[in-house]
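Protein Record: Sequence and Backbone Structure Tokens
======================================================

Structure line: whole-number tokens from a learned vocabulary of local backbone shapes, matched to residues.

Purpose: to set a sequence beside its fold so the mapping can be learned.

___
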Amino acid sequence: MESQKPMAPKPSAAPATQVAAKIKKEEKISNIRGIKNAFIVILCCCAAAICIFLFLMGAPGNFEGGTTDGHPLNLAGTVYKGGFIVPILMTLLLTVIVLSIERWIALSSATAKATLPSLSLTSRLTSQPTTSTQPCSVAKRRKVL
């Protein structure tokens, strides 16, 4: 008797793979330019800071006698005498400057789909809790504001 029962169709995995492919495709397409991997930026800033520290601040012309063991003649030599913490601090400073410029470029290239007052109103309306179980209209919520 059980052999006569119709077999239920098995769910196919095709819709799930189509959705995953669509999500991946949407992730690849982005109009906002920006740095994809900030770790590379930090490494580049570290290399630049070390080069500035060793070759510019540690130049023989910045010290008496032409060696870094002498007394510093100017501010660059004095900063060089600060030690190993100087390139670390320079790395942090350069990273902040570079990533700030990157964020400014990315945000200036982004375009909004709505005006700022409408976005502000939308955020205010969605952040206020409703007192009843019935959803209230936008006109009623505007009176609350």
Helices lie at 14-28, 38-57, 75-80, 85-109, 116-127, 138-144. The mean pLDDT is 78. The chain has six helices and no strands. Residues 85-109 form the longest helix (25 residues).
